[in-house]
Design goal:
The chain has about 525 residues and is of the alpha+beta class. It is about 30% helix and about 30% strand. The relative contact order is 0.07.
């Protein structure tokens, strides 16, 4: 096995072609390279690992988030990040435009591809003044975790930067913290994590959850940026160290505690006692050699363990975030379900929209004088409408995850205490749920409607056409109405009314199914 240093070889790179699709390289040797536009690093990759070997060479495809920016001119350089030797340099033009390519966000701040192939603000684009608020946020969250009884420390890339370089890693984009529980059983570690979340919430922090033992704690930095710091839970069990995300290795607790310190951008922060053992467990024995294209290669056995113990609560969230981001400028219309509910329940006091998305139905009911609650597990979707309706007492938005039983029970019980009569709508959600999620949705609706003669109104894709309707609605794949009917029967409900109709008169149009369901038999 060659070290990363041995793989970094000098010499020019054999570049056959650069176009809007990607790069075609003639070299079959493995090497790590940086790609820069006009002198600023945009992307890093390993030639063989990340490329596709073809008859004419190795093809590297531009990361998907970068492609919309590839219209214009740039001085493209490829360098060895270790020696900074220039391996290739050429002025290139993509598309028809002749002005310089600028990979920036709407505020004009530079973006680059990170290790997860996301386009983000990396630390090498932020000056000292921009870094200070992040350091303040790290100190604040570490202090808050101390107050709730945890000895937390810098973890993952944040620890690597502090211990190896004394600063933030230029190609990194976030801050990671970790802790090791005093408990050794996964159930107890989970219970502790939810206790931590409640305590942080009581202290005024907004907290979102990745998994049963991993959180994001949101802090508003002094420059106004909402900074989310990831807090990964860990524990020791039978000589193995488990740290949520990637790590399950033989370890000793004394290699973590008592904590040591390391300097990060001139400030001292807690880190594991044995830095070499910790970073070797995280990044392997070559952690001292920078690798801006590093990818975690988590063993399948570790993934299976973590999935079984802790994961499953964020399934689909990234997909919905992508959908709402892609359709942010798409005109919103009030759903057929909303109109049906208004007609069936003229005396409605509270409307509940499960999977409310951007909140069009919620706003429509509120404008009619009806209290409305929007529930969604992707807060990005309803954020703008929630801000617009912040002073409207008829409107509430709430994070709601149908894969997390705590949400299903707690939020549903809260809704059940709101004024009746009540009705529940759920439009193009069940297609994206597995059986457990569908049954949780039905259980939730039943709880919300308890004590009323209200009904649940479902709409879902029952037949996918050639009209792009599935993509426009985020439904993706159709769901057999017979499957939904079986789920309804299992939940103790009954289908009062069912209709299937084409979404347009055009040939090959998609079909939707709408069901009206109650539990009053």
């Amino acid at each position: 096995m060659k070290s990363l240093g041995q793989l970094r070889r000098s010499g020019a790179l054999d570049v056959h072609r650069i176009d809007a699709d990607g790069l075609l390289l003639g070299s079959s040797r493995e090497r790590l390279v940086d790609v820069a536009f006009d002198g600023r690093r945009i992307w890093s990759f390993w030639v063989v690992r990340d490329g596709e070997q073809r008859d004419d060479g190795i093809h590297l495809v531009w990361p998907k988030p970068l492609r919309p920016y590839l219209d214009g001119v740039a001085e493209l350089t490829i360098t060895d990040p270790g020696s900074e030797a220039v391996l290739f340099s050429e002025t290139v033009q993509f598309g028809a435009r002749t002005d310089r390519i600028e990979v920036v966000n709407p505020a004009g701040r530079p973006l680059a591809i990170d290790k997860s192939l996301k386009l983000v603000e990396t630390f090498d684009t932020r000056d000292a003044a921009h870094v200070e608020p992040l350091l303040d946020a790290i100190e604040e969250v570490l202090g808050a975790l101390t107050k709730v009884g945890l000895d937390a420390f810098l973890a993952y890339g944040t620890a690597l930067g502090a211990i190896r370089d004394g600063g933030l890693i230029g190609h990194d984009s976030d801050a990671d913290l970790g802790y090791v529980s005093t408990y050794d059983h996964p159930v107890d570690v989970i219970r502790e994590s939810f206790r931590i979340q409640r305590a942080l919430t009581d202290m005024g922090y907004r907290v979102t959850r990745y998994s049963a033992i991993a959180l994001k704690v949101h802090v508003e930095e002094s420059d106004g940026l909402d900074r989310g710091l990831d807090v990964f839970g860990g524990f020791m069990r039978e000589g193995t160290f488990y740290l949520m995300g990637e790590i399950a290795v033989p370890f000793r607790r004394e290699w973590i505690y008592p904590l040591g310190t390391a300097s990060l951008e001139g400030r001292e922060f807690p880190v594991p006692a044995n830095a070499d053992k910790f970073l070797t467990a995280t990044y392997g024995p070559h952690w001292r050699v920078p690798d801006p294209a590093y990818k975690f290669t988590t063993p399948a056995s570790t993934i299976e363990l973590f999935n079984g113990w802790f994961r499953g609560m964020r399934t689909g969230r990234a997909g919905w975030h992508g959908y709402h981001k892609r359709t942010i400028h798409q005109k919103q219309s009030v759903s057929t379900v909303a109109h049906e509910v208004a007609e069936r329940h003229p005396d409605l006091a509270t409307y509940v929209d499960i999977g409310c998305g951007r909140g069009a139905d919620v706003a429509w009911f509120a404008d009619r004088g009806t209290s409305a609650i929007g529930l969604d597990f992707q807060p990005y979707a309803y954020e703008a409408e929630a801000e617009r309706r912040a002073d409207d007492p008829r409107v509430s938005f709430q994070l709601f995850n149908l894969l997390e039983l705590r949400h299903v029970l707690a939020v549903s019980a809260w809704v059940a205490r709101t004024p009746g009569p009540r009705a529940v709508g759920c439009v193009h959600v069940v297609e994206r749920l597995g059986r457990r999620g569908r049954l949780n949705m039905l259980r939730s609706a039943r709880m919300m409607l308890a004590g009323t003669d209200g009904t649940l109104h479902l709409q879902f894709l029952s037949e996918k056409g050639r009209d792009g309707y599935a993509r426009r609605t985020g439904a993706r794949q159709p769901l057999d109405p017979a499957v939904v009917a079986a789920d309804v029967a299992e939940s103790g409900g009954r289908i009062l009314h069912e209709v299937r109709e084409r979404v347009s008169a055009e040939p090959g149009s998609s079909q939707v199914c709408r069901m009206t369901i109650d539990w009053n038999a």
